[in-house]
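To whoever is on call:

I kicked off a structure prediction for a single chain this morning and the downstream step that reads the tokens threw a length-mismatch warning. I double-checked the sequence; it's 65 residues and nothing unusual in it as far as I can see. Pasting both halves so you can look.
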Amino acid sequence: MEEELKTRLDTQEKKIDAIYKSVEKTRKYFLWTLIATVVAFVLPLLAAIILVPLMLGPLMSAYSI
């Protein structure tokens, strides 16, 4: 009986380790997805907020009276 219990616990430990590795891979995937989203969306948005007024200033002064 005790040997069977030890075998089952060992099996569960192996499965828990496999689950942990899978969860860590998923966590890293979500982290890199978040980083890619920030780089692809937020940084260009911030650049546009800064650069558009700088480009429109000379253009608007050229058309002013």
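Update from on-call: the warning came from a stale cache, not from the record. Cleared it. Sanity check on the structure: The longest helix spans residues 2-63.
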